[in-house]
Amino acid sequence: MSAREVFLTLLVSLVVYGVIVRVCEADDGLRKNFYKNSCPKAEQLVRNITWSKAQSDDKLGAKLLRMHYHDCFVRGCDASLLLDTVGTNQSEKDARPNLTLLGFEVIDDIKTQVEKLCPNIVSCADILALAARDSVSFPFKQDKWDVLTGRRDGKISLASDVTGNLPSPFSDFNTLRQIFANKNLNVNDLVVLSGAHTLGVAHCGAFSRRLFNFTGKGDTDPSLNATYAETLKKQCPNPANPSTTVEMDPQSSLSFDNHYFTILKQKMGLFQSDAALLTDRNSAKIAIQLQSKPNSDNFFSEFGKSMKKMGAIGVLTGNVGEIRKNCRQVN
Ligand code: HEM
Ligand SMILES: *[C@@H]1O[C@H](CO)[C@@H](O)[C@H](O)[C@H]1NC(C)=O
Ligand SMILES: *[C@@H]1O[C@H](CO)[C@@H](O)[C@H](O)[C@H]1NC(C)=O
Ligand SMILES: *[C@@H]1O[C@H](CO)[C@@H](O)[C@H](O)[C@H]1NC(C)=O
Ligand SMILES: *[C@@H]1O[C@H](CO)[C@@H](O)[C@H](O)[C@H]1NC(C)=O
Ligand SMILES: *[C@@H]1O[C@H](CO)[C@@H](O)[C@H](O)[C@H]1NC(C)=O
């Protein structure tokens, strides 16, 4: 080869290489299989442990999916939610809207075993993102969405950051849209991700106002299915018992599917924030489309796309942040 040919070959290789790297690596620095070289078995180990935990706890998917969402919406997906309060500095998990997050000890167990395999390599933020996916996926025995990795752990967790970043169950459509927009999530993401309420339960306090005192006159929220409201009143008598819970997707709260959109259409969305999705024309159209398909495949693919965006909110990558040794405390 002449010098010119060598030069051209090199140039072409560089351009091709650059394109490949760009395609594989999102702008935020997350990548597919980030630990491929540094800890090749990490993702498999997280999946194995999560699946064995999910086998003995059929509610684990709901717990970890919600935990990942709460982490991402407050200070980005940096595992700040996992930090325990130190001294007088109340951490995120002790903020009022935590409304009983569960599953922290599962993340601790996974982290302990991952540290044995590869010390100081795998972040708590990635473990949470993977375990959320794996716990929801367990019944299907295959990943229900892709998780990019390469997140690092934050060093700050403040209860005061929770307000304004997490929508409340009393939010109206504009509030929801605004909070999601602040996270670079659009109305499609809002509707699709609300489909996570196909899993899990809620405490009566999150919706009992809709049953007994909607406008302060002892009335019921007219946007709630009247038959369903009567059922809920029996399950959650006034005043609300703080330990009583009800399924958000009745009789289907353990199956990850598009059934949330079926009950939503029947005016059985449990929170005002669920019902609010029907108050905007565009949002209602998206919700109807998600339930109109014969199976959940369309919902699954949409959910995967929106989870990828949610999982990238405010991530710390490169040299920022740290790889925590213990998910509950900074190094
Ligand atoms: C759109 C705004 C949202 C609001 C206002 C909201 C609010 C709530 C509330 C109040 C609960 C019940 C908590 C309790 O009483 O114990 C809950 C549960 C839950 N949320 Fe959301 N949420 C929203 C979006 C999301 C998103 C985006 C996800 C995940 C992608 C999610 C996943 C869950 C899950 C899985 C549960 C059940 C947890 C369990 O059973 O352990 N939520 N949500
Ligand atoms: C995960 O489980 C599979 C199947 O039991 C096993 O073959 C594999 O070695 C496990 N991997 C790790 C990293 O634990
Ligand atoms: C949630 O917040 C309450 C009140 O601030 C606190 O007592 C409780 O320990 C918190 N729950 C969790 C799981 O951290
Ligand atoms: C405690 O709070 C202060 C300011 O409110 C903050 O600068 C500091 O990083 C916090 N510490 C932790 C461990 O989050
Ligand atoms: C209903 O709401 C009104 C106004 O907020 C309040 O004054 C009243 O005590 C509530 N009644 C009940 C039974 O909770
Ligand atoms: C209320 O829910 C029932 C099922 O529980 C359904 O048959 C009915 O169509 C719903 N009503 C409205 C107005 O959506």
TrEMBL record:
Keywords: Calcium, Disulfide bond, Glycoprotein, Heme, Hydrogen peroxide, Iron, Metal-binding, Oxidoreductase, Peroxidase, Secreted, Signal. The keyword Amino-acid biosynthesis does not apply. This is Peroxidase. Transmembrane segments: none annotated. Binds 1 heme b (iron(II)-protoporphyrin IX) group per subunit. The active site is at 70 (proton acceptor). Belongs to the peroxidase family. Ascorbate peroxidase subfamily. Belongs to the peroxidase family. Classical plant (class III) peroxidase subfamily. Pfam families: peroxidase. Residues 29-331 form the Plant heme peroxidase family profile domain. One of its GO terms (molecular function) is metal ion binding. One of its GO terms (cellular component) is extracellular region. GO terms for biological process: hydrogen peroxide catabolic process; response to oxidative stress. Residues 1-26 form the signal peptide. Ca(2+) 1 binds at residues 71, 74, 76, 78, 80, 92. It comes from Actinidia chinensis var. chinensis. The record marks 66 as: Transition state stabilizer. Its EC number is 1.11.1.7. It catalyses: 2 a phenolic donor + H2O2 = 2 a phenolic radical donor + 2 H2O. Its cofactor is heme b; Ca(2+). Heme b binds at residue 197. Ca(2+) 2 binds at residues 198, 249, 257. The keyword Disulfide bond applies. Disulfide bonds join 39-118, 72-77, 124-327, 204-236. It is found in: Secreted. It is an enzyme of class 1 (oxidoreductase).
